[in-house]
Amino acid sequence: MTSTISRCPCGSGLPLDACCGRFHAGEAAPTPEALMRSRYSAFALGLEDYLLATWHASTCPVDLNLDDATSWIRLEVLDHGSAGERGHVHFRATFREGRRWGVLAENSRFVHEAGRWFYVDGEPSMERLKPGRNDPCPCGSGRKFKSCCGLG
Ligand SMILES: [Zn+2]
Ligand SMILES: [Zn+2]
């Protein structure tokens, strides 16, 4: 189990320390995509301080109240890029709350200030998933739902 636990939640396949963990420890994320991945990992790991620190002051909430009942399962980055001080990332994040599954999709905007990228805002859309027993598992394992996360 140790290798699974230390694997970065963003799905890069790298160990956490060699991936988003570096940014959680204070290193500046070099691109909007790297920042977005590290923020996804911070959501998955419950690192509220990191999420607030990488949120642009103009849109940052006072506090987050992360929901422990939500497990972040899978991240897919569909598109990303930057032009000068502005950046964007379009992603889909699959989550589950107990037996309920959903996907959050967002076009996020980022800004580069004082040597760092910050998350500004986005247009989120939420979709419920109802995986059937024989459907591909929404976790991205490539196995059928009934023989993966749908077990039991
Ligand atoms: Zn990562
Ligand atoms: Zn699965």
TrEMBL record:
InterPro entries: NTF2-like_dom_sf (IPR032710), SEC_C_motif (IPR004027), YchJ-like (IPR023006), YchJ-like_M (IPR048469). Residues 31-122 form the YchJ-like middle NTF2-like domain. Pfam families: SEC-C, YchJ_M-like. It comes from the Bacteria. Belongs to the UPF0225 family. PANTHER family: ADENYLATE CYCLASE-ASSOCIATED CAP C-TERMINAL DOMAIN-CONTAINING PROTEIN, UPF0225 PROTEIN SCO1677. This is UPF0225 protein HOP59_10510. It comes from Billgrantia aerodenitrificans.
